[in-house]
Amino acid sequence: MTHVDELLLDDITLGSAILGSGGGGDPYIGLLLARSAIQSHGAVQLTPLNCVPDDALVAFIASIGAPGVLIEKLPRTEDAVDALAMLSHHLRQDITHLCPIEAGGLNAVIPFGPAAIMGLPVIDADGMGRAFPGLDMVTPTLNGGTSTPMAFADEHGNRSLLLTETNAWSETLGRVSTVASGCTQFFASYPMTGRQAKQWLIDAPLSRAARLGRIVRSARAEHRSPVDAVLAQEGGIRLLDGKVVSVERRNEGGFTLGEAVIEGTGAHAGSTLRLKFQNEYLIAERDGRAVGTTPDILATLEIETGEPIMAEDIRYGYRVATIGLPCDDRWRTTDGIELVGPRRFGYDVDYRPVEGGARE
Amino acid sequence: MTHVDELLLDDITLGSAILGSGGGGDPYIGLLLARSAIQSHGAVQLTPLNCVPDDALVAFIASIGAPGVLIEKLPRTEDAVDALAMLSHHLRQDITHLCPIEAGGLNAVIPFGPAAIMGLPVIDADGMGRAFPGLDMVTPTLNGGTSTPMAFADEHGNRSLLLTETNAWSETLGRVSTVASGCTQFFASYPMTGRQAKQWLIDAPLSRAARLGRIVRSARAEHRSPVDAVLAQEGGIRLLDGKVVSVERRNEGGFTLGEAVIEGTGAHAGSTLRLKFQNEYLIAERDGRAVGTTPDILATLEIETGEPIMAEDIRYGYRVATIGLPCDDRWRTTDGIELVGPRRFGYDVDYRPVEGGARE
Question: Which chain B residues are closer than 8 Å to A163 by Cβ?
C-alpha cells in the first residue's frame, strides 16, 4: 500500500499527461481538484490491484466532456461524490474501491478527490493504460464487462443513471447528455467485483505514470534530456524530433479533431511527421508511412523540458519529440484492435506495433 | 369506478384527439397498444381523482418523441412497464396508480396498456387537460411539483433515470436522450402522493374526452353536424369554417413546426385563418388578429365527420372547422401563462381567453 500525498500526485500528473497520448484532458485540472481534497481530508491509499479483495465493489469515477470546457469551469469534486452515491443507490450496495477509467490525462488523478472525501482507496489499475475518447473503449468491454449502471452528475445539480444494452449505447447516450449539460460531467461506471477487476483491468498504470513523472523531473534537475530518459526507461521509439509547422484543428460532436505537421530537425532533417488526432494522437505518419498507430501511445514532448503537449494545445513553432510507447498487450489482440485500432476511428490504416513499424 | 373496455377506449381516443389541439401524437397508435393489452389482460379500472387514497403513489406514464416516428415503429407496451419498474426501483416503493401526463393525443390512452399488464388503476386526471410539447408544461410544475425521478425506456432495451434541478432540465435532458435513442421512448415521471395528485392535477379529462368522442359519434350516426354538437356541449367558439389552402411544415429539434392557412367559406367567406403550430396548434390568427391563443385548445375538425386533423397531417384541400375550447382555469393564471402562453413559444402575442378574443 502506498499513501498518495501531494508529491506523488505531482509525479502521477506529469506521467499521466505522457500516457494520455495527447488527450484525456489537462491533468493539471485533475491535480488541482485532487490536491485540494487531499489537503482537506488527508492522503489517499493507493491499493495494488492484486490486493483488492474478491468481494470488493469497484467502480470507475471519471470526468467526461470537452477538455477545453474544463479549463473554463473547474469541476466540483462533490459532483463526483454525488455520481458515486447515485450508482450506490441504484446498486443498493456501497462502493469500496475507486479506480481511474484511464491512466492518461485528467482522469488518472480524478479518483483521488472523491476518494479523499469518502475515505476510500484508489486502485493502481485502469481500463485503458492510456487515454481514449470513448467510454466504451476499456478492457472490461473486451471481457464482456458492462458499463452500466452508470451514474452522471453535472455542475447544475442534475443527476442521471443509465442502464444500456451495450457499452457503445452508453457512449452515445452519455455523450449527448454531457453536451446538453454544458459539455462536462462526472460519471461513475463499470461497477465490478474485486475478482472481476483483477481479471479485467490493466495493472499498475498509476505506478507507471509516477515513474514517468519522476524520470522527467530528475532529468530536468540533472540537465539530461528528459526525452532520452523516458525512451531508455520505457522501451519507447523515437518517431521524429522536429518543429511544428502547421496545425489544423476543429471541434465536432464534443471532440477535438485535426492534424499537426512536424518538420524534422537534426538527425530527422528532411523528414515530415503528420500527427492525426481525435482528442488523442492516434496516427503518426512519417514521410507518408504510418510509423505509429493507435492503440500504441503517441506522446509529443517539448524537446527541452519533456513537457507533454496535448492535441488541444499543440501549435506552430513548438520544438518537439514525438515518441511511441507500446500499449498494453490486451489492445494488441483482434478484439482490442477492433475496439480501439485505426479503423475504429475511420483511418484506413492497419495497426502495426510501434516497435516494428518504426524500424522497417 | 368505471371499467375501461374497448368501446370506452374508442370514445376516449376520438375525444383526446380533439383535446390534443392538433398535437400529442396520433391517439390511434395509443389505442392499438391499449386495446391489445386489455384484450390480453382484461379491462382497466378508471379511478376518479377524488377517490385516490392520500398515500397512493401516482406517476405519469407517457411516450415522448417525434409523432411521425411512432407511426413507423409501433412502441412496445413492455417498455412502458420497464420505465415504471425503473422508477419504482429508484424510489424503493411500488407505484399504485397510473395517470396520463396529457389528455390530448396519444398519451391520453398510453397508461391503459401498462395498467392492464400490471393490474393497476388509471386515474381520470392529467397534467395538461390538453397536449403540450414540453414535459415540464404540466400543472404540477405550477405547484412546485418535481418531474424527477423520471425513468425512460427506449426500444433498444436502454433504460435511464433522471434527477434534475428543474423540470425544464428534465425536458432538455429527456429530449436529447430521446433523439439519440431514435426519437421515441416511454417515460415514467412526476411521482406524487395521492394527496398531491388531488391538489395538482386536472380533474376528469378522460371523462371529458369520452364525452367528446361519444358526441361526435352520435352526431355522425344521426346525420347531425359533429362540429355543432361539440360546440353546443363544450361551450366552444367557432373560429372559422373553410378550406386549407396552404401548409408550411418543417421538423426542428424533434418538433413539427409550421403554419396552415385556411380560407373561409359560407358565413366566413372572405376571411382567412392562419393556424400556427409547434406540434400543437398554438395560435389562430383571423384576418391578422389573434382569435385563439395557447393555452386554449384550438381543434381543427374535418367539417363533415368531425374527425380531428393533426398539425402533422393537415394539408391542402381539407374542408375544416377550427374551434376554440377553453383551457383549464389553472393555465389562465400569471404562472400558467408564463409556462404555456404564447410568448413561451416565441409568439409576440398576449394570451386572450378564446371566449373573449373571438367575439370582440
Answer: 86, 158-160
pLDDT of B360 reads: 43
In whole angstroms, what is the distance from residue B42 CA to residue A323 CA?
Answer: 69
pLDDT of A61 > 50? The answer is yes
| The residue to which cell 500527427 is assigned | A275
- Report yes or no: A60 and A189 within 8 Å, Cβ to Cβ: yes
Size of interface A-B (CB pairs under 8 A): 59
Phi-psi region of B87 (alpha: psi -120 to 50; beta: other; left: phi over 0): alpha
Q: Distance between CA atoms of A281 and A259, rounded to whole angstroms?
A: 9
Q: Does the bond joining A308 to the residue before it have cis omega, within 30 degrees of 0?
A: no
B interface with A, Cβ–Cβ < 8 A, is: 86, 89-90, 156-165, 169, 172-173, 176-177, 179-181
Q: What pLDDT is recorded for position B358? A: 47
- Does A180 sit within 8 Å of B173, measured CB to CB? yes
Q: Which residues of chain B have a CB within 8 Å of the CB of A177?
A: 173, 176-177
pLDDT at res. B235: 87
pLDDT single digits (tens) A87-131: 999 999 999 999 999 999 999 999 999 999 999 999 999 999 999
The better pLDDT of the pair A279, A127 is held by A127
Tell me the C-alpha distance between B234 and A241, whole Å: 82
Judging contacts by C-beta atoms under 8 Å, the chain B residues touching residue A161 are 90, 160-161
Place of cell 492534424: A259
Please answer yes or no on whether B89 and A89 come within 8 Å at the CB atom.
Answer: no
- A149 prior amide bond cis, ω within 30: yes
The predicted model gives A14-22 an average pLDDT of: 96
Percent of chain A with pLDDT over 70: 97
Which grid cell sits at B148?
424527477
Residue of B nearest to A152 (CA): B162
Cβ B165–A158 below 8 Å, yes or no? yes
The pLDDT mean for chain A works out to 94
Q: Is the pLDDT assigned to residue B25 strictly greater than 90?
A: no
Asked if B267 and B303 count as a contact pair (C-beta separation under 8 A), the reply is: no
Using pLDDT thresholds of 50, 70 and 90, give the confidence band for residue A74.
Answer: confident
CB contact under 8 A, A172 and B162: no
Q: Which domains does chain A have, with CATH numbers?
A: 2-203 (3.40.1610.10), 225-357 (2.40.390.10)
**Spatial contact of A46 and A205, defined as CB atoms under 8 Å apart:** no
Residue B128 to residue A56: CA distance in whole angstroms: 48
Q: ∠ CA(B128), CA(B132), CA(B138), 5° rounding?
A: 40
Dig out the grid coordinates for A135 from the structure.
467510454
